[in-house]
Amino acid sequence: MEDKEFALETIWNDFISVAKINIVSGTYTFLKTPDKVQECTDIFSFFESSANISLVYANDLNEYKNFIARKNLIANIFESAKNTLTYRCIVDGQYHWVTEEFIRPKDFSLQNPVVVLTKKLADEKICNENTAVRELNFDFHKILQVDLFFDSYTIIKARDGEVPVSEGSKKFLSQWLMETRDSEIIHPDDSDVFKRMTEIDYMRRFFLEKRGNLRIRYRRKSNGEFRWVVFEAVPSPDFTLQNQNIMIYVRDIEDEYAEQMKKQKSLEKISFEDSLTGLQNRTAYNQAVASISKRTSGSCGVIFSDLNGLKYMNDNFGHAAGDKYLKSFAEFLRKSFRTNSCYRIGGDEFITIIQDSTEEEFNARTTSFISCAEALKDTSVSVGSAFCLLPHELEDLVEKAEQAMYAAKAKYHEDHPEVVRK
Q1: How many C-beta atoms surround the C-beta of residue 376 within 10 A?
Q2: C-alpha angle with apex 352: 346 to 357, nearest 5 degrees?
Q3: Is the full-model pTM beyond 0.70?
């Protein structure tokens, strides 16, 4: 084999596919392809076909569609001899970085608008760099280069329709931020914080005081729904009064924040929820007492409930029966009051806290609760209650309710001598 033929064959083997295309009429012929390709009326229909589009990696799809759009492609090919895009697509069942290139022959003209399209695996180093940059870039709504001194910015990246000026152009930063603040894009509960912390003077003072990066977490409307995003302003290392350059990044954090909140709620559940009954536990109760004790107005009522016969149940029928007994009463409490008002503070001791009702309303609810508890089948409970206007030492109120409960329990044991006291 001659050297030229060897070289051509080696180069040819590097390509995944090669096609000859009339860029004006759209007619095409694949000279090399690994698989049987879908037949379409023209190359642009082929590019846009679901079979072809489905091979492209989701994060690269918009850039790919823009690259192969008929109007863009024709204009770019007539302007430049080579047009190249590196993106990810499925090759041999897996995603790989590939380079797709339109090459214009020397005799290319309006009368002979034929080009060659090649696709091959991209260089490994380029692949790694592209992966990092592309994934990072995809995460951001916006990347802006900002000069606070001149109140100007340059758009490095912005999603479609989010900035009313073309990429790379300049505009007053304060004007853009004001338009953002005054629109309905920002969630109403987050708008005040966003407005205060994105004022030019506020940011300038923040960075001159060397306080690090400025981060604002807020909810922003995207496709009709609010999603959590983070606005982060990063000063240049040499930020001074004369050199006020910063970078602004706006990134969607909805998914990671939702996962973070899920973990936090899970930890809170472990910390503040009684594992057996699902009611709030002693830790949550202590926190509630501390919070209510700080109040200077309103009212508070406490209902102290103690299950009768739990020890008798455990000793005679086993702890599984005792647990069932506790859970049954907890469910009764949950139905009688709100779950976040009910606490299991000990083995068979439960407290319900009712805030901001009148004394008459509290007494009526307590009477109704005791009446319903007495009607329960296979369940017996001793109940005491106390009421006060705030401010008041809540522990004294709880002790008063507990003493009333013990009086009721003494009466129960007087009537049921067969039940062993705990």
Answers
A1: 12
A2: 160
A3: no
